[in-house]
Amino acid sequence: MRTSYSALNTFKQCPQRFKFQIIDKIKAPRSPEAMFGSSVHGAMKFIFSHDPLFPTLDEVLGHFSENWKSSAGKSSKQLPVELVQVYEESGKGMIKNFYKNNPPWNFSVVDTESHFEVLLLDERGQAHILAGIIDRVDKIGEGEYEIIDYKTSRRLPSQEAADMDFQMSLYHMALMRRWPGTNPAKIKLSLYFLKHNEKISSTRTKEALETTKEVALQTIKIIEVSVKEDNFPPVVSKLCDYCPYKQICPAWKHLYKKEEQNFDEAQLQSALKEYFEIKNVDSKNEDRLAELQIAIKSYMEANKLERVFDERGYYISKKLQQRFKYDFDKVKEILTAAGMENEWQKILEADDKKLKIILKTLSPALRVQIESQKILSKEFTVLTASTKSVK
Ligand code: SF4
After folding, report:
1. Which CATH number fits domain 109-224: 3.30.420.10, 2.40.320.10, 3.90.320.10, 1.20.120.10?
2. Among 110, 153, 164, 207, which residue carries the largest CB count within 10 Å?
3. Cα of 245 to ligand 1 centre, how many Å?
4. pLDDT (tens digit, 9 = 90+) per residue, 258-286?
């Protein structure tokens, strides 16, 4: 399979979005946040791309403003002028701060926006390629490099999260592939948070890189199964507000399609109304609720909907319930290899609850390794109802 870090990330966040974007290739307008991020990244590249004559701060700010206004102007959804200005001011603030703290002549930048490919071989010997773009690579000493990834987000991750950042581990592997003679311990990985002018750096051990490889291959394997079974469940989260496919998503589209009501829809609305009345007023009417559930569920299945809404915006969701269990042979291998036989003895009577307690005491790398050994043991669908209106 040929894929990218961002595709894997999209799949992990929401398989349904992955299907729209990567499999069906449905073109979608870019969000203001995405356009803004690209313009700021463009300015960062511009700062370092003019060696030996570096651009002045005014030139960089001008370059950014022009790019940002041009992207905002081309947006299919007209952005309010005030919003365009707020973003422009925010971008300029980040660039000024960055330029002041990082005069470009102080760095030995060897590449910017560098395309890379990482080759991964699975247990069947099948090759998979992960492609991506590294924002910046600096030479920081003899045989020493720093990979820098710019972030425009507000949230600062913890050091532990930065140490385990999957994207940065892939960048490390990409650099090693490009310059195989490099000492892996001499590659520094830095996330640069432009809003706060904060850099969080980390390195990677051989074991951490092995774990990254395993996690990437495992995600690829899950994607392959999803493609084979055409199974891409939507995962409703805060990210839905930024998803360009919301209006066609099975978890949301019913909310947007009220005007196309037909006989079935009217029946559904009546079923939903009654469902919520009974649910709210009289818990004794469980039998009727069960009948309505069957009617609503069959409507949802017949119409391939993940959620259905009544006129107030109350909704019923179809939720896939999954139960996982650990592959204890693999867990034993991992703990034994880490010299933790005692911990293995403690869970000899294989028990998920005991393992969960021990997991909290392990290093992040071991935790990821063990988590990746979960096996799906059971799954079923239930309906859940909410009287918290989305309108
Ligand atoms: S709207 Fe939400 S659930 Fe639907 S595809 Fe987008 S992210 Fe997934």
Report:
1. 3.90.320.10
2. 164
3. 7
4. 655 566 888 888 888 888 888 777 666 77
